[in-house]
Structures are given as structure tokens and as C-alpha cells.
Specification:
Radius of gyration: 22 Å
Helix content: 55-70%
Protein name: Retinoblastoma-like protein 2 (Trinotate prediction)
Oligomer: single chain
Largest sheet: 2 strands, antiparallel
Distance between the termini: 56 Å
Organism: Myxobolus squamalis
CATH topology: Cyclin A, domain 1
Strand order of the largest sheet: 1-2
């Protein structure tokens, strides 16, 4: 895969941003974050607000592990705040896919982020509801996955099954 370096950010030929693995340092984290936001057309005001919020929390608390999921949680929750609500909808699934962040890890970070940042009760309820809905959907999927595959699987051979209608037709 040929890499093209543009403003110290790595893009491959398809336009995707290459995400280095491991823990980011301050400047490389900000560049990667800005690249994700630029690629997904996130407003400059939202990006700056989320970065400032992330910076203030990072000074007050010890954020463990990779910092990019924490930053995506800050971006998501900042977008849900009332003062930034006029911005277009944030496609968080696209951001998570590009950053290669699992949804479960992201939801755990949101849960912790809301409590660290001391959001309004309405946003706390919103984040709790997202997590509850994800847990419920995952639980149903795991319980019924085997049954769904039995009910909706194709027959062993792709030939039509003989029915009384098919026999009369011959």
C-alpha cells in the first residue's frame, strides 16, 4: 500500500487515515484527531470544544490506555451538549470504524467520561440508555444467534424442494 504524507498525516490511496497502534503522545494525538474530524467534516467549533474538554480532563484525571477512544468519547459527548446542538449530526460509527475502536470500548469510555466531566443529568441518562440498549441488543443476539441461523439458513443443496405443486407441474 503506497503511503502519501500530507501535513505529517498518513493517508493511503483510498483516502483512509492510517492509525498507528499504541498510545499517542500529545501532538500526534491532536494531528490524528484533526485528520479524523477533517475527513468526516466535523465543524471546527465542535473539534476545538472537544479538544479543550479532553485537555482539561486529561490534566485532572489519569486516562489509561490508548487516548484516541477517550478523545472520541469527548467528541461524541460534546456534540450532544446543548450549546453545540446546532451542528450537523456526527457520524460516530464512521469515526469509530476509521479509528478501529470497538463499540464496546467506546461505550465504556463514554460511561466513564460522563462521570468525570460531570455532565447534566439529561446527558447522563442519554449515555446510560445507549449503553443499556447495546447490552440488551448484544444479549438478545447471543441468545438467539443459533436459533436464527437454523431458521434462516439455506438448504444443503440449492435445488428447489419438491412440493405437491411442483409434482403436479411435471
Amino acid at each position: 500500500m503506497n503511503k502519501i504524507t500530507h501535513h505529517q498525516l498518513n493517508f493511503d490511496k483510498s483516502g483512509d487515515i492510517s492509525v498507528p497502534t499504541g498510545i499517542f503522545s500529545g501532538e500526534s494525538l491532536k494531528k490524528t484527531f484533526m485528520a479524523f474530524c477533517l475527513k468526516n467534516q466535523v465543524s471546527a467549533f465542535l473539534v476545538e470544544t472537544a479538544w479543550n474538554e479532553f485537555d482539561s480532563v486529561r490534566e485532572s484525571f489519569t486516562l489509561t490506555g490508548n487516548l484516541l477512544p477517550w478523545l472520541m468519547a469527548a467528541l461524541f459527548m460534546t456534540s450532544k451538549r446543548g450549546e453545540v446542538q446546532q451542528n450537523p449530526r456526527l457520524d460516530i460509527i464512521s469515526l469509530l470504524n476509521q479509528a478501529k475502536i470497538p463499540l464496546t470500548e467506546f461505550l465504556m469510555k463514554i460511561s466513564k467520561w460522563v462521570r468525570m466531566e460531570n455532565y447534566e443529568p439529561l446527558l447522563k441518562e442519554y449515555s446510560d440508555r445507549i449503553i443499556f440498549n447495546h447490552i440488551t441488543a448484544s444479549r438478545f443476539f447471543s441468545m438467539y444467534c443459533e436459533k436464527y441461523s437454523l431458521v434462516f439458513s439455506l438448504p444443503d443443496n440449492f435445488l428447489p424442494v419438491d412440493t405437491s405443486y411442483n409434482k403436479r407441474k411435471q
